[in-house]
Amino acid sequence: MQAIESLSPEKAQEKTILHELAFNDENPNVSLAALEKLNSFVLWLKMSQIAKQSRVKKTAESKVNSALLNEGALSLSPEEKFSFLTETASPDLVVQLLPKMKERDASLLSDDVLAQALIDKVNKPSFTHYVFLEGASASLQTQIINAQSNVSDLQKLAKKVSDADLLSKINARIDAIKEAEQRPIELKKQLTLTLSKFQALLDKADVEVVEEKRRELESELSGLFTQINLLTQDERAEYEEKRSRIGEQVERYLARIRPGWEEKQRAAQLDNTKALCEQQLTHASKQVSWLYDSRLCEATLADVATVNESVRGVEATLEQLARLGKDTSNEKRIREISKAVNQLNDKLERFSMQQHYGQKLLIKLQTLEGIVAKMTKLSGGEADSVLTNAGITEASSSNEAQLDTDESVDNLQAAFHKARDDYKAISREIDAIPDVLSARYKAVLNRANAKERANKVKENEQVKNARKQISVIDNLIAQGKFRVAIAKFQKLEESYNVLSSAAKKHVEKRFEKTAEEVTHLEGWQSYLAAPRKPALVEEANALASTIPDDIKARSEAIKYLRKQWLSLTTASDNNATDNGDDSLQQQFDQALEKAFEPCRAHYAKLDEQRLQAQEKRQSIIASAKSLDTEMPEAELVKVFDRIAKQWHAAGQVERDTYEQLKHEWKAVSSPIQNKIRVWQNDNQAQKRALVLQAQQLANEEDIAAGADQAQALQKQWKQIGHAGKREESKLWSEFKAANDRVFERVKAQRKNQNNALNAQVDSLLTHIESIDIESHEVDFSESVSKLRAQLSELPKPQRNKVERKLELIESKREALEKSAQSQAQFDKAQALISLLKLSLGEGSDDEQMLAERLGKRWSNLFQQSDGHIRLQHDRQWLTVALEVASHMPSPDADASIRSSVQLQMMTAKLELGESATASEILADWLSYDVLGVKDKIFTQRVIAIIDAHPEVVA
Questions:
Q1: DSSP state, residue 836
Q2: DSSP assignment of 440-478, as one string?
Q3: Are 101 and 108 a contacting pair, CB within 8 Å?
Q4: Which of 246, 616, 718, 875 is the most exposed, fewest CB within 10 Å of its CB?
C-alpha cells in the first residue's frame, strides 16, 4: 500500500504498474488503492463492468455514479457524460441514473440530440414519457408525439399533460393514427364495392350504359389503386387479380351483346324518327292553324318564318326516314304525312292574300262595333230616364233633344246594316275566319239585337206606365181627391214630355182629356186655399214662439206644416204673381225659419260630434295601420281587440263618411283579422285535439297514468293561445268536463285505496298491541321485523302512524331492558360487596353463589389476587384513583395522592386522548394482591364506592 502511494500516474511506467495492480491484483484493497491513485472515470467504469469481487464492483459503481452526479473529486465534462450515456451505459443504468443526474443538472435534457439518443437507446414508453414530461424541448416533444404509433401510450401521456397545446397535438396524433388504421379498411370497402359494381355490369343489356359505367368504374379503380400500398402483398395481389378478371369478363360480354344491341338501336332510331315526324307534323299543323286563327290580321314576317321553319322540320325528318331505309308497314302513313306537308305548304303560300282579306274584315268588324257602341250610348240611360214599375222617374232632356236622338238612331241603324253586308261579303273570300273575329262579330250582332229588343220593351213599358198613371189620376178625380190628382198629374206631364213621338201616339188622346180636367181642378184649389193659408201662418207663428222639448217632434211639426202649405199651392199659383200670397208665403217662411232655429243649433252640435267621431275613427284607423303584424299573435289579438272596441265606441258620423271610413277600416283590419283568424283556427284545432285526448282518458285502464296525462294536457292547454270568443268557452267546457270525469275516477280510486290502507293500518296496529314486550328477545325482534317489512308498501302518512306505534312499544321494551340491566348490575355490585366483606371476615354468604352472581370476569379478577404484585401502583393509590374516577371524596390524609392521581389521569388524557375508567381501576384494585387486615380501610372505601355507583361493576 505504501508502494502504491509512492507511485505517480504522471509517469508512464508507474502508470502501467498502477494499471496492472488495479486490474490484476487479487487483493481488493490493492485494486482499490491503485484505482484511487489513477483516478480515471474510464478505469472506474471498466472496473464496474468486469470486477469479480463484490466490494471492488460496488466501489467502482459508486465512483461512476458519483462522477456522473458531480459528487466527489472525480468530475466529467458534458461531452464525457454524453458519450457515457449514449454509448457505454446500459439502458437500465440510464433509467436509474438520469433522474438523479437531472436533479443535479436541470438543463440535462434540454439537448435534443442527447434526449433523442437516450429515448432510442432505452426504447421504453415509460422512459419516453419521463423525458417528454421532465425536460424535453417543445420541438422534441412534437417529434416524440409524431413518432408515437401506439394509441394507448399516447392516451396515457395525455393524462399526464396539462398544457392545452400539447394535449391538442397528442389528440391530433391519436386521431391521425386511428385514421391511418382505418384507411386500409375503408380502401378495402371501396375496392370491394367498386368491383361489385364492375361485376354488376354483366347484368345490363345496354351497351352504351355498360361502356359509360365501365369508363367511370375504371377511373374510380385507378384512383383507388394509387393507395394499394396500404394493403398487404396478398391483398394487393387479390384485388389486382379481381380487377383484371372482371375487366376481361366485361369485355367478352360487350363483344357478345353488341350486334343485337346495335340492331335494336337501329330499330329504335327508326321508331323514334317516325314518332318525331308525327310530333313535328302535329306541331306544324298547330302552328299553321295558329297563324290563321290567332295571327291572321297581325302576323309578322318573323311569325310566318317560324311556322315555315316547323314545316321544313317535318320535311327534314321525312328525308331522314328515307335514309334509314324503307319500312313497308309504314309506307302508307309516310305518304299521308307527305300529303299533309304539301297542304301546309299550300296554306303558307296563300297566307299573304288571306291576311289581306283578314285585315279588311277586321276593319269592318271594328266599324260595326263602333256603330253599336254609339247606338248603345244614344239609346241608353245617358239621354233619357226609364219608367220603372214603381212609377215614372224625372226626365233629363227635352222633347226636341229626344227627336234628334231618334233621327241619330235611325241613321246608325242604316249604317249598321250596310257595314254588316260588307262584312259578310269579305268573309266569303276567307278560307277560315278566326274564332276571335267570329266571336266578336257574333257579340256585335247580339248587342245590336238586344239593344233593339230593349228599346222596344222600354217603349212599351213607358206607354204602359203612362196609361196606368192616367187611369190613377182619373180615379182620384172621380173620388174627389183633387190635390193628389193634381200632384200626380205634374209628374205625369213631365214623363209624357220625354216619350218618343211613336209612344206618344198611343196615349195622346187620353192625356189631353185628363189635362183638361186637371186644369179645371186647379182653379177650384186656389179658391179653397185662400182661407186656409192664414191659419197655417198662425200655427207656424205659434210653433216658433214655444221652446221645444223634443227636437225631433219640432222638426216633424215643421215638416207637417210645410207639407200642408204645399198642398194648398198649385203650379199656377207658383207661376202667377199675387202680392197677398207672396206676403203670406214670406210670413210662413219666416215663422218656420224661426221655429227651426233650435233644431239648427241641435243639428250643428250633432255635426260637431260627428266631426269629432270622424277624427277619432281616422285616428283609430291610423293606429291599426301602424300595428306591427309580425308581433306574436297573442299580443296582436290583445292590441287589436282594444282598437276594435275603440272603433265600435267611437260615435256616429254621416252615412257617406261612415261608409268611406268603414271601407278604410276593413281594408286595414281585414289582414290583421285574417292573421288572427288563422291563428285562432289553429289554436281551436289544437284545443279540440286536446279535448278528444281528454275524453279518451276517461276510459284509460291505468287511472293514475290517466290523471298524469290529464295534468299534462292541462299544461298544454295553457300554452295554446285563444281559440276565438265563440269557440273558446265551448271548448273549455268540454275540456273541463272531460278532466272532471278523469279526476272523479282518481278520487274514487284514492278513496278505495285509503279505505284499504286504513284497514291495513288498523290490522298492523292490532298486531303491534298484541306483541308482548316481556317476550324473548328473538321473538320480540322477529315480530317487529315482520311488521316493519310490511311498512314499505304503505304511503308515508300511514307508515309514520304505524312507525310511531312501533317506536312506542320498542321504547317500552327498551325501558324494561334498562330496568332489568340496572337490577342485574345492582345484584352484581351487591355480590362483589358481599365477597369483599367475606374477605374481611364479615358476613356468612355462600362464596360460590356470590361468584356466580358476580359473573365470570369479576370472579376471575377477584381470584387473581394471589399475592404476586404485578402493578405499578399500590392499593392505596388505586383506591384514591377509583375515588377520583367515581367522583367520590378521599380522606384528607390522601390529598397529595389524589393530586398526583388527578395529574396523571389528566396527562394520560392529553397524550393518549383518554384516561383509565372506574371499572378498569376497580379491576386493577381487585387483582393487585390478596386482601388482608391491612387493606380493610381501603376495602371499606371501595365498598362505599361500589354501593354508591353500582355501574362500576359493568
A1: H
A2: HHHHHHHHHHHHHHHHHHHHHHHHHHHHHHHHHHHHHHH
A3: yes
A4: 718
Handedness of CA 285, 290, 296, 299 (dihedral sign): negative
Instruction: Confirm if 633 and 675 have CB atoms less than 8 A apart.
Output: yes
CA distance to 322, 389, 458, 467, per residue, from 453 (Å): 64, 18, 8, 21
Other CB atoms closer than 10 Å to residue 476's CB: what's the count?
Answer: 19
List, for residues 56-107, the tens digit of each pLDDT value. Answer: 777 877 777 777 676 666 766 777 777 777 777 778 777 777 777 776 667 7
- Distance between CA 90 and CA 484 in Å, rounded? 146
Within 13 A of 102's CA, how many CA atoms are on the CB side? 17
Length of the chain: 954
Angle made by CA atoms 885, 891, 895, in degrees to the nearest 5: 75
What gap in Å lies between CA 221 and CA 194, rounded to an integer? 7
pLDDT-wise least confident of 80-89, 806-815, 835-844, 890-899: 80-89
Whether 170 contacts 145, CB under 8 Å: yes
SS3 at position 388: strand
Task: Name which of 949, 659, 714 is nearest 832 in CA terms.
Answer: 949
The enclosing H or E element of 391 equals strand 391-392
Residue 831 — φ and ψ, nearest 5°? Answer: -65, -40
Helix (H) or strand (E) holding 324: helix 301-324
- The tally of CA atoms less than 13 A away on the side-chain side of residue 637 is 15
Helix (H) or strand (E) holding 387: strand 387-388
Residue whose C-alpha cell is 435534457: 109
Rounded-to-integer distance, Cα 608 and Cα 530, Å: 43
**Residue 553 · residue 596 · CB < 8 Å:** no
H-helix or E-strand spanning residue 156: helix 151-160
What contacts 591, CB < 8 A, 6 or more positions away?
537, 540, 541, 543, 544
| Distance, CA of 475 to CA of 479 (rounded, Å) | 6
Chain-centre distance for alpha carbon 583: 88
Among the listed residues 497, 490, 540, the one whose alpha carbon sits nearest the alpha carbon of residue 515:
490
Fill in the amino acid letter for 791.
L
Q: Which pLDDT does position 890 carry in this prediction?
A: 92
HSE of 742, CA atoms in CB hemisphere, 13 A? 29
d(CA 600, CA 591): 14
d(CA 739, CA 712): 11
Burial status of residue 241 (CB atoms within 10 A of its CB: 0-12, 13-18, 19 or more): exposed
| 32 vs 30: CA distance, rounded Å | 5
Spatial contact of 205 and 257, defined as CB atoms under 8 Å apart:
yes
- Phi first, then psi, for residue 388 (nearest 5°) are -90, 175
Residue 48 one-letter amino acid: S
DSSP secondary structure of 373-424:
HHHHHHHSTTTS-PEETTEEPPPSS-HHHHHHHHHHHHHHHHHHHHHHHHHH
- In whole angstroms, give the CA distance from residue 602 to residue 553: 13
- Confidence band, pLDDT 50/70/90 cuts, at residue 44: confident
The half-sphere exposure of 170 on its side-chain side, counting CA atoms within 13 A, is 22
Alpha carbon distance 1, 528 (integer Å): 185
* 410, 374 Cβ separation under 8 angstroms: no
Distance between first and last Cα of the chain: 78
pLDDT at 410: 62
List phi, psi (to 5°) of 869: -80, 120
815's CB contacts (< 8 A; 6+ apart) are none
- Percent of the chain residues past pLDDT 70, beyond the cut: 88
The type of residue at 62 is S
| Contact indicator for 875, 928 with CB cutoff of 8 Å | yes
Between CA 291 and CA 294 the distance in angstroms is 6
Phi and psi torsions of 208, nearest 5°: -60, -45
